[in-house]
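Reviewers asked in the last cycle whether our approach scales beyond single polypeptides. To address this, we selected a multi-component target totalling 720 residues and predicted its structure end to end. The input consisted of the following lines:
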Amino acid sequence: MEPYKNPNLSIEERVEDLLSRMTLEEKVGQLNQVVATKWNIDEVRKLAREGKIGSRLLASSGLAGNEEQHTADVLEGNEVQRIAVEESRLGIPIINGRDVIHGHRTVFPIPLAQAASWDLDLVEKAASIAALEASASGVHWTFAPMIDIARDPRWGRIIEGYGEDPYLCSAMARASVKGFQGEDMSAEGRIAACAKHYVGYGAAEGGRDYNSVEITDNTLRNVYLPPFKAAVESGVATVMSAFHEIGGEPVTASYYLLTEVLKNEFQFDGFVVSDWEAIMQLLHQRLAEDSKDAALKAFQAGVDMDMKDQFYINHIADLVREGKVSEERLDDAVRRILRIKFRLGLFEHPYTDLELARKVHLHKDHLEIARRIAARSMVLLKNKNGLLPLPKKGKRIAVIGPMANEKRALMGSWTLDGRAEDVITIIEGIKRVAPEANIITSSSGLMDDMIYAARHADIIVIAVGESQIRSGEANSVADLELSPGQEELVETVHRFGKPVVVVVCAGRPLAITKIDAAADAVLYAWHPGTQGGLAVADILFGDVNPSGKLPVTFPRTAGQIPLYYNHKSTGRAIDEYFNKSHFLNYHDQTGKPLYPFGFGLSYTTFEYDHLKIEKTEVQKGEEVKVSVQVTNRGKVAGEEIVQCYVSDKVSSTTRPVRELKAFRRVHLQPGESKTVAFTLDEEALSFYGQDGKRILEPGVFTVWIGGNCLTELGVDFRVL
Ligand code: GLC
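The resulting structure, written as structure tokens, was:
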């Protein structure tokens, strides 16, 4: 048996043995990711036989987030794999990639909603279920997690990531990578993950997708890079290079970002795949003269695999022969790709068990997790006079609005394999959770019928929101108001003088200022996935006490954007976010958010006191220990996400006014108190200076603890 086929040898030994046997053409073949659709199956078979496919991309268009995609065909996948393994000269298996962003057949809430759960265990669990279901469809590799920091809700892709905070986003990155990959990627039901879109994509100017980005290296290092560093530390198998440029350099052609920072400084040992046509787009960005020049620039920068463009398969061998690309660089790229294929166990298990899908897709346990994470991701933004939870009987409850009976939108964008028919609507969920409730629904989608239903009810639930087509890739908006008619419906019903509950199903933070004024209660349900309707009902009727907290600031209007909590302290006080402004932010609008980062209500109330710090002076590198007592002052049990923020009072590089550095979810019975302790280490107190080096400086810091970023419960300490 050739050493590379021997599973008893180390992966690195197997990689080196296989590499030593490969011809130049076979090496270049591994760099080639081919879009595999039903239209080009013959071409794919031929390339597989010739050893010219490293990966199949299971997508039938460049906008897989919202355009219908072919189902991942297991039979076809096994057939092509058999050709690659049994008919090509070296039998190197193909790795199949697909966008499994927040679920496969069981669709979980969009990632931004999952971030609102602040529940790392559940996020990991959801990713592991998505991996299991996807692997049953022949998927070996997902292009997730998307961990782009986003501070602009106009940008449609804000839904795919975990919000505005580097610490929370990094924690989510670790959880999802671990969920997809597990401790051993070769285990059944595990798939390779892909940290994307490296790096700074969420800072697109104007929130316009694909637009240029202008951020400094210091901002890149302190805000946008940390989640990718966390993903690499978690062993993420691949990283995807983004479409955009930063300050004149397209990321896909950036040796500094892809090789110096990612591969050398972060020690990333997996492989980099370009985003869809990102190499070809170097032509549009007028950085490359032709496809060969584009291939050269991307490959030398550090992009190892070419998604779809076929530029590598057409030019890299010639570039090597011409001496423009070294064999060493080529071997480095091939080594990285083979390493991931060996780690995935593809050489031992190249084929998919055809029976697995029937056993795992939409399994009842998966649906239960989907329901639970959806409920924990929902954020109660308003609950005047304790209107919620609703009684399960004795009142006539109208359930109206465009989202009340909606299925497809509840899955959100980037659900290639979810099916609308599997979705539980809000009305269906309410009828199942509160079967004895007197529910009145509209006989149609007509406003007149909805208003008629409301007139005959004691309490009105109005489900509003946005379609999934308004978010995700290439779907940004200039205004954040709800689409026409929805605010008017709420305001009309509000005039009846009866209690109004508004449920918002959306992918991004919307400027629901008018809704907030007209409603007595507001529940932000996001795009909650297959079990969304049940989760909404679980909360509305109190079977679940809401605990979600916002992972992103909610502006009052798009004109305030960008508006985020971890902003810098300015020379002149304009910080209305934290009520520390001596100057008007705007004449025509407050500078305060509608809802701040970390905000979310419960059906009970939590009291914080007894904030203690072990030492008010610590040596550099010494841990800082703080604790606080949290008490449930209400009548029902609940969970509070206790948040810990730090301010660095004076530093050599300007720092945010506050930064999240730890959080803990605590469950409290009525009247129960718990002491929650946090330890702040050197990592929590340090930052990247102007020289790109991480530093911890002596000086005064403040640590703040509370239920959202505005907490005033704080204590100072000094690092000596
Ligand atoms: C898309 C997206 C990327 C996705 C890839 C494959 O254009 O930018 O997130 O993974 O192409 O569908």
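The pocket of alpha-D-glucopyranose is lined by residues 59, 62, 64, 99, 143, 196, 275-276, 473 (CB under 6 Å). We regard this as preliminary and will revisit it once experimental data from Aim 1 are available.
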